[in-house]
Amino acid sequence: VQNGYILVLAIGMVMVIIAGHIDLSVGSLAAFIGAVAGVLVVRPLEQDGWEWLPALPWWAGILGAILIGALVGVWQGFWVAYVGIPAFIVTLAGMLLFRGLALMTLQNSNIGPFPDEFRAIGNGFLDKENAVGTALGVPATYNAMALIVTILGILALVFQAVRQRSGRIKYGQPVEPRTWFFVKLIVLAAMVGYVGFQLSQANGIPYTLLLMVFLVVIYTMVMNKTTFGRHIYAIGGNLHAAMLSGINVRRVNFWLFVNMGALAALSGVLIAARMNSAVPKAGDGFELDAISSVFIGGAAVQGGVGTVTGSMIGGVIQGVLANGMNLNSVGIDSQMTVKGLVLLLAVAFDVWSKNRK
User: Fold this and answer.
1) DSSP SS3 for 21
2) pLDDT at position 136, please?
3) Sign of torsion over alpha carbons 234, 240, 245, 249
4) Residue 111 bridge partners (DSSP)
5) Distance in angstroms (rounded) separating the CA atoms of residues 356 and 345
6) What is the 3-state secondary structure (H, E, C) of 279-306?
7) How confident is the model at residue 263 (pLDDT cuts 50, 70, 90)?
8) Using CA atoms, how far apart are residues 266 and 308, in angstroms rounded to an integer?
9) I want to staple 138 with a disulfide (CB 3.0 to 4.6 A). Which of 144, 213, 294, 335 is the partner?
10) From CA 215, how far away is CA 223, in angstroms rounded?
């Protein structure tokens, strides 16, 4: 829940970095879209200039905010893909531009509070009242919906792993030894079960976690199973070879930034929902956290290498570090030092391992 908006940014960022680009504007864009969501959903009457705009239902405000984020991605993708300006320069300009637009939209004030349904996206839990548990006669100390979702998740995990292994065997591809396969699967299922059991003893499964699982599954399929995903890897691995093979590099780069804009908008919605307010300083430094998550998760600096799940692991590592240091009252100066060293060591290990090969 605390790091969901960073993980959403990391999903889009890993795709951008795999293609050999970088996006420095996502934090400012998230702040701008949070401000837009505040205007669309809350519509502060006391601010001059917005009298013509009716308040929208919370779901319409979210869709509108994500659409505006995608349009911002169209803007940045045009300059990168079709004008040929390096993404570093375009997004550096965007970092300043969208932060300024966020300040202009909010008029140096906060917008809030948001409706309960909107706020639940960043702070809500699935069946927090345990109505399902009451109906099924489950003890009140356990959230029945969390247990059900955990069991379904474990079954889906086992089914997918067995199906993938069977497919490889069918087509004569190498697979890991059967004993190691089942040991790894049992350990992974036990980890998921343990997390789900702990959540069932608390408030249940957060909506943010469900959203993240959905995004990870969808974008993992996009990167591994679609032509668009293979083109991203090809462009980052060898740009000239990709162009000679007939890949429309401009179109791929354009849609990469459209996708990044939509995900940054979703991150901005999550920030506003968690804080229950749209604030001018939201998203400050989030672009660095997203980039760090991607590199800690195993992405290559040169592009062409990286996974969505790896970036999620990198983001979780950063979140655990930050949370642990906060709980131990570590000063902000030491926290920044530790984060910087972790990022440097992760990239240094990547370079060292590639030089060994």
Assistant:
1) coil
2) 79
3) positive
4) 278
5) 16
6) CCCCCCCHHHHHHHHHHHCCCCCCCCCC
7) very high
8) 17
9) 144
10) 12
C-alpha 317/C-alpha 323 separation (Å) is: 10
CA distance 94 to 101: 10
What does the alpha-carbon distance between residue 178 and residue 186 come to, in Å, rounded to a whole number?
12
In angstroms, the CA 132 to CA 112 distance is 32
List phi, psi (to 5°) of 129: -75, -5
Structure confidence at residue 332 (pLDDT): 80
CA distance 154 to 170: 24
User: 133 with 145: CB under 8 angstroms?
Assistant: yes
The SS3 of residue 278 is: strand
Tokens describing residue 291: 């980039």
Over range 313-330, report the average pLDDT: 85
Inform me whether the pLDDT recorded for 50 exceeds 70. no
pTM: 0.85
Report whether pLDDT(49) > 70.
Answer: no
Backbone angles phi, psi at 275, to 5 degrees: -85, -15
Is residue 161 within 8 Å of 178, Cβ to Cβ? no
Q: Which two tokens stand for residue 345?
A: 């060591």
How many Cα atoms within 13 Å fall on the side-chain side of residue 260? 35
Among 19, 36, 98, residue whose Cα is nearest residue 305? 19
Q: Percentage of the chain with pLDDT > 70?
A: 96
Residue 82: CB partners within 8 Å, gap ≥ 6?
250, 254
Would you say 192 and 157 are in contact if contact means Cβ atoms under 8 Å apart?
Answer: yes
Residue where the block lists tokens 């083109």 = 231
Strand, helix or coil at 2?
coil
- Packing angle, helices 207-225 and 308-327, rounded to 10: 150
Strand partners, 125: 206
Short-list 288, 269, 204, CA closest to 68: 269
Identify the band that residue 120 occupies on the pLDDT scale cut at 50, 70 and 90: confident
**Cα separation, 134 vs 143, whole angstroms:** 9
Residue with tokens 């909506």: 207
